Amino acid sequence: MMAYSNDDTFPCIVGEVGSHSTKLGFAGEDYPRSYFRSTTAIHRDAKHKSDPRKVKRSYDFFSRPLDHTGDDDGNWEVSNPVDATTGLIFQGMNNNVHYSSSLSNGHDGVGSGTDTETEKPSSSMNANEEIDDAEVKDASSPNESSSGSQSSDNGIIPGECFTHFSSHLAHGYESALCTDAASTPLMLVEKSYNPPPIRQKMMEIVFEEHNVPATFFARDAVCACYAVGRTTGTVADVGHAGTVVTPVYDGFVETKGILRSPVGGAMMGEMTLQHLDGLYKTKKSRMKLKSPVDYIMPLYQVNAEGMMARREPFHSLARLDLARLCKEDGTGAGVAGYGYAALSDLEGDAAQKEPSDMYHQYANAPKATYKLPDGTTIDISQTKRFDVGELMFGKGGKSAQTREEATRRAKKRLDAITASGRDPADNEDVESNAIAHMEEIARRKRNARGLGENDKKKLSFQASHEKLVNACIPYLSTTIGEFTASSLPSMICESAFKCDRDQQSQLLGNTVLCGGGACLATSVMSTSTGVNDGNAMPERLRRECEAIIHAHTPGWRVKVSSPGISERAICSWLGASILGSLGTFHEMWITKAEYEEQGASIINRKCP
C-alpha cells in the first residue's frame, strides 16, 4: 500500500462545500481561513454560453449591483453547486429542477407581509425559478438534448455544478490559503450518503483540474463525531437546505438509519423574514412612516437612489441574508425551554385548554429590539422568536403542518429528479454498467495525447453527464435517506431505532448536534434554570429525546454533545481538521499515482 508523505513541510488542506458556505483551511487549525458563501453570482460569456468554464464569478453581490455601467445586475445570474433537494453536488438531466424550501404554497416564496398589490420577493436560493406541483410534474420529462455542450432554455448547462465546485476550490486556494494546490494534499468533507458516481467525479476534478498530490474524502457525520471526541453517535446536522440525522458506529456510517428533513436554516430564515415584515408593516401603519414599501429593506436598497429594488433573485437573497443576521444575532429566533408549546401548535383537545404558565411567562417577558438598516427599530416578542425554533420541535399544529407540506414538496422534487434519468426498467443495467463506463471515459481522457489543453478540459466537462445521472438514480431512490416530517427529537430516536438493537443505547447516549441551523440561542427567561445561551438547543433536544425514549425504555440516558455556538456551524470541518492533523493519517491518503493506476473507483475502497 502506498503512503503519501510530503516531509511534513505543510499540513494538508481541509475543504467542505456546503449548501450555504464553503470552508477551506489547514488541518490542525481551529477555524477555516477561507469561508465564503456557496451561492455566487455568475456572468456567462456571450460568445460561449454553452461553455461553463468561461464565466465570470462574483462572491460579493449582496451589498451592491454587479453591473457598474448600468447600476444594475445586467445579465448576471445566481448559482449554487449544491442541489437543495438532495444536498449533493448534483444536477439532474432536466436543468429546470432547482429548488429552495419555502413556507408558502405559491411562487412567491416568502410572504413579505405586503398587500396583494405589492410585489412579493421570491425566496429562491438558486439562479432558477421555484416550481410548484405542476412544474414538478412537467420536470419529470428530460430535455430533448442532454449534452453538456448545449444550454437549456434558462441558460443552465447539464453538469455545470461540478464546474462551480471546482471554481469554489480554486477561489479558496487563491483568496486566503495562498498555496499551490499541486503541493498540498486535500481532504474533502462530503455528505454521508454521497453516491459513488458523484464521489468519483469529484475525485477526477481534484486530481485532473487541481493536480493535488493526494486526497481523502471524509464523511461529514463521522467528522462531526470526531469534533466532539466521539467515534459513535447519532449526528443531527441542521444545515441550510435541510436537516440530516445520521447514525455513526465505530467511525462508520450506518446508512440504513439516515433520515432527512427539508427544515433547515433556510426555512427558519424565511419564517424570521415573515415576522420582521409583519412587524415592520404594523409599525409603519401605526407610526405613519414614510417608506415606499411594506417590507423590510436590505442595506443596498436603503442606500439606492429612490430606494429601488434589484431584480430577482438578488433582492430576495439580500432580504434573506438580513433575516439570517437577525436570526443568528438571537433577536429573531430562539429555542424555548422544555414543555413550551406555541399557540399555533395547540390542536384538538389541547386547543381548548389554557396555554401553559411557561407560555404566559414568555409572552409577558420584555421584547427584543432589533434595528433595521433604515434605522427603524422593531420589537420582537419572545413567543415570535420561539415560533421559529418550534419548526424543529413542534409536535402538532402549524409547525407540524409546515413540515409536512415542505416534505411533500421535497419528495415530489426528488421524484422529478429521479424520473429525469433513465427509464426505471433499465436501472438494473445502470448501476452495474454506468460506473464502469465513466471509468473508461476517464481513462480515455488521460490517454488523449492528440488533443489540445482546451479540448481536454472541454471533453472532461462533457464526459457523459447523462451516464453519471443514470448511475446516481438508484442511489437517489434508495440510499440517500428517507424524507420525514417528524420533529428533530423524533428523527433522532427513529434513526437510532433503525439500527441494530445492541447499537441503539450507544447511539442515543452520544447524540451530536451540529450545523449552522442549530446556532439558536435561548431567551433571557431561561437564565434562571442555569442553561447557558449556547446550550439552550442541546438541552431542549436532550429532554425531548429522553421523554420519547423513557416511554418504553426508562433506563436509557441521552447525552447531547455539541460544540459552542460559535463553532457549531463548522463542526464537520473541525473534525476533519483534527483527523488530517494526526501523525498516522498519511497511510490513508489516495495518491495521484494510485489514481492513475487504478482509476477513480479506488475512492470506494480507501474512503468507506
Summarize this entry quickly.
The chain has 608 residues and is α/β, with parallel strands linked by helices.
What can you tell me about this protein's structure?
- The strands form four sheets. Strands 9, 10, 11, 12, 15, 16 and 17 form a seven-stranded mixed β-sheet that branches. The chain has a six-stranded mixed β-sheet with strand order 3-2-1-7-8-18, with helices on both faces. It has a three-stranded antiparallel β-sheet with strand order 5-4-6, with no helix packed on it.
- By secondary structure, the chain is α/β, with parallel strands linked by helices.
- Helices cover 38% and strands 12% of the residues.
- The chain is built from 20 helices and 18 strands.
- Strand 1 and strand 2 form a beta hairpin.
- Helix 1 packs parallel to helix 11 (397-419), helix 12 packs across helix 14 and helix 15 packs antiparallel against helix 16.
- The chain has helices at 133-139, 160-177, 196-208, 220-227, 265-287, 299-303, 314-328, 349-352, 357-363, 382-393, 397-419, 427-446, 453-461, 465-478, 488-497, 501-509, 536-549, 571-580, 592-598, 603-606, and strands at 13-17, 21-26, 34-37, 40-44, 55-58, 77-79, 186-190, 214-219, 233-238, 243-249, 252-253, 259-261, 368-371, 377-380, 482-483, 511-514, 560-561, 590-591.
